[in-house]
Amino acid sequence: MTVEAVLEGIPMPVMLIDNDSRIKLANAAASEMFNRNLAGASVVSLLRQAPVLAVIDASLNAAQEGQARFLLSGLSGENTYICRANPLPDGGAMLSFEDQTQQEDSEMMRRDFVANISHELRTPLTSLMGFIETLQGPARGDVDAQDRFLTIMDREAQRMNRMVSDLLSLARVEVDERIRPRDQVDLASVLRSVVATLEGKLSDASVTVSTDALGGSFSILGDRDQLTQLFLNLIENAIKYGGTGKTIHIGVENLDRDLALRQPAVRVDIRDEGEGIDAIHLPRLTERFYRVDDHRSRDQGGTGLGLAIAKHIVSRHRGRLKITSEQGVGSCFSVFFPRAE
């Protein structure tokens, strides 16, 4: 077996360099990584990052193994690699590149998540501590102030409770995401139940629901509790942001084939008549703690986690979520599920 064949059998980008730091051999993965023919190229001009070049120099001149972080800009953004340099017995070195982009992105998401949680919980907690201090001091004997402050404290405590509940829901959904549900569920039945549950909120907001499409049978393999949570979230959002006195339109239909799912599907549309959402926000709506209007969302009792939970529920059901919106007309949240055979 030739050296070239061995290199091609290695899935990660690998190249062999001589003592002059020129590439003698490179596998297809390495050529694809740099989008060029690498034979004869100088790694000094190719890599151009001091920590990586220092590791290569130590490998060539002191026969030392080493590794360094290497950043490569591409069409989809910046990718992160671990470049390892291993000296060869007959001179030169072998360079390999392990893609760490996904791990670094995950770590960044984890750090951002922790920072966001800390911020979201600190705000109501700081408010509570401030009111407690006031009640223990200047407002100790002021009954009117006490009632007013206690009302605000109750609201902030409820907000913290909703946040913790949504965090627990998100954690449960993420744990279950890889396990596909196997129970047959009729979506029309779930939607009718959700609308009945929300009758009080609908009445308070003077919002009506068009449910003409819920008369048929629309079966999928699903988790009824999670599907209920999904549609409670989407319809509650439509109530909050659709506007007083407006109508929420719920549509359900069986599709012979959904192009994205590549199989028969059930489509559910939740459409409001609200102000709509600027297109710039649509790709980020399912991110944790992302809010289009931060102040309004907090006033409405939103935690910023609802659509993140919805996305994971849809993913667990092997479906897809599509969000469309037109400013001044309204927004439509469409969910596509594989249809039960």
Description:
This protein is an alpha+beta fold and 341 residues long. It has three domains: 3-99, Beta-Lactamase; 105-176, Helix Hairpins (Orthogonal Bundle), CATH 1.10.287.130; 180-341, Histidine kinase-like ATPase, C-terminal domain (Heat Shock Protein 90, 2-Layer Sandwich). It is built from eleven helices and twelve strands. It has helices spanning 3-8, 28-34, 43-47, 50-62, 101-136, 143-176, 187-197, 199-204, 224-242, 294-299, 306-316; strands at 14-17, 23-26, 66-74, 77-87, 93-99, 184-186, 208-210, 219-221, 247-258, 263-271, 320-326, 330-338. The strands form three sheets. A five-stranded antiparallel β-sheet has the order 2-1-5-4-3. The protein has a five-stranded mixed β-sheet with strand order 7-9-10-12-11. Strands 6-8 form a two-stranded antiparallel sheet. Helix 6 runs parallel beside helix 11 (306-316), helix 7 (187-197) crosses helix 9 (224-242) and helix 9 (224-242) runs antiparallel to helix 11 (306-316). The longest helix has 36 residues, at 101-136. The chain is extended and about 85 Å long. The chain starts with a helix and ends with a strand. The model has no long low-confidence stretch (mean pLDDT 87).
